[in-house]
């Protein structure tokens, strides 16, 4: 199997092409599964439908896990620090690693709501597919962003449509859904950005090592960060770790840890109604003033005011 590659820079400005001819059918199938706004899991593991009937009033913050997002109607933008990735029915978005992002629906109306097909990506399943296809790439090829855009293809939308149709035949879904998911993985690997996705599933690649580093950070984010420990976990030198971590995430390990801490603190404040000092302490801050300062810088309000506003508004995340 031959996978095409393109430069990893300039994806924010990726030129739009006409939407896939099957995108309208995908939109109809998504609308049947989501009659109200929100994020709706389906009986097929890892498959969700997202619907919003108006542009987002505010920017949502989340740790987004590996997934492919295919918009069938409307448009959205995801922000990774200062980088903006805008996508619609002509472009799909892939998260190849866990990334702390912000997001906002930019085009949606009551008559034509934002509709998105989201399928979580399993690196182990992609690795098995690569092995089956006999694909082998250089393990030490340069790592690229863990978030990227590419042009939607008819074959990819066909696979998404078939997977959505299986929701209407539960008995068939038990047998055929894994095959439909595998087909979608294959179609992703055959796109212009497929090699970047493949690198995450190859055990000795730089990208895969950074993914393991991220997994370690997710478990230990509340503890003091040791770059030497991270480097040992990744089996990399500290300089190589810094270089490839920034290539994949656009930030340093310390900046990534800070975003994990602040997003978890926000979840605690809104969902568990803990006090500000306790929330900061539980995510690793020893100084309440530093916690409040960094929280306010990221979310735009002091922790207590922000939590109260979110509880009052009942804001729904836009993943």
Explained architecture:
This protein is of the alpha+beta class. It has 12 helices and 10 strands. A 6-stranded antiparallel β-sheet has the order 1-2-9-4-7-10. The chain has a 4-stranded antiparallel β-sheet with strand order 3-8-5-6. β1 and β2 form a beta hairpin. The two termini are 32 Å apart. Mean pLDDT is 87; it is low at 1-14.
- Give the radius of gyration: 20 Å
End-to-end distance, in Å? Answer: 32 Å
Query: What structural class do the secondary elements suggest?
Result: alpha+beta
Average pLDDT works out at 87
Q: What percent of residues adopt helix (DSSP H or I)? A: 40-55%
Strand ordering within the main sheet:
1-2-9-4-7-10
Shape: globular
Count of helical segments?
12
Summarize the main sheet.
6 strands, antiparallel
Count of β-strands: 10
Uncertain residue ranges: 1-14
Briefly say what this structure is.
With 319 residues, the chain is α+β, with helices and mostly antiparallel strands.
List keywords for this structure.
319 residues; alpha+beta; 6-stranded antiparallel β-sheet; 4-stranded antiparallel β-sheet; 18% strand; globular
Describe the secondary structure blueprint for this structure.
Elements: H1 23-33, E1 38-41, E2 47-52, E3 60-64, E4 67-73, E5 75-80, E6 83-87, E7 91-95, E8 99-107, E9 114-120, H2 123-133, E10 147-151, H3 154-166, H4 170-189, H5 194-200, H6 206-220, H7 227-234, H8 238-249, H9 253-271, H10 276-282, H11 288-299, H12 303-313
Antiparallel strand pairs: 1-2, 2-9, 3-8, 4-7, 4-9, 5-6, 5-8, 7-10
Helix pairs in contact: 1-3, 3-4, 6-7, 9-10, 9-12
């Amino acid at each position: 199997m031959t996978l095409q590659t393109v430069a990893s820079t300039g994806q924010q400005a990726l030129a739009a092409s006409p939407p896939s001819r099957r995108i309208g059918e995908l939109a109809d199938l998504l609308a049947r599964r989501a009659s109200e706004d929100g994020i709706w899991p389906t009986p097929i593991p890892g498959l969700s439908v997202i619907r919003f009937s108006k542009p987002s009033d505010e920017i949502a913050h989340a740790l987004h896990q590996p997934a492919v997002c295919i918009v069938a109607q409307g448009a959205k933008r995801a922000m990774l620090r200062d980088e903006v990735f805008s996508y619609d029915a002509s472009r799909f978005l892939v998260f190849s690693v866990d990334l702390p992002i912000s997001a906002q629906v930019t085009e949606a109306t009551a008559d034509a709501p934002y509709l998105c097909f989201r399928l979580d990506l399993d690196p182990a399943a992609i690795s098995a597919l690569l092995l089956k296809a006999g694909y082998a790439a250089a393990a030490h090829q340069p790592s690229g962003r863990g978030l990227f855009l590419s042009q939607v293809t008819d074959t990819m939308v066909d696979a998404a449509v078939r997977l959505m149709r299986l929701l209407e035949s539960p008995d068939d879904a038990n047998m055929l859904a894994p095959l439909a998911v595998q087909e979608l993985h294959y179609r992703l690997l055959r796109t212009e950005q497929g090699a970047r996705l493949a690198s995450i599933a190859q055990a000795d690649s730089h990208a895969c090592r950074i993914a393991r580093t991220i997994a370690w950070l997710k478990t230990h984010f509340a503890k003091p960060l040791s770059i030497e420990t991270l480097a040992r976990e990744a089996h990399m030198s500290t300089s190589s770790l810094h270089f490839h971590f920034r290539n994949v995430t656009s930030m340093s390990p310390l900046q990534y840890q800070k975003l994990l801490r602040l997003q978890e603190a926000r979840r605690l404040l809104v969902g568990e109604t803990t006090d500000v000092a306790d929330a900061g302490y539980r995510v690793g801050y020893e100084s309440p003033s530093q916690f409040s300062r960094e929280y306010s810088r990221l979310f735009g309000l002091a922790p207590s005011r922000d939590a109260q506003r979110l509880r009052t508004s009942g804001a729904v995340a836009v993943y």
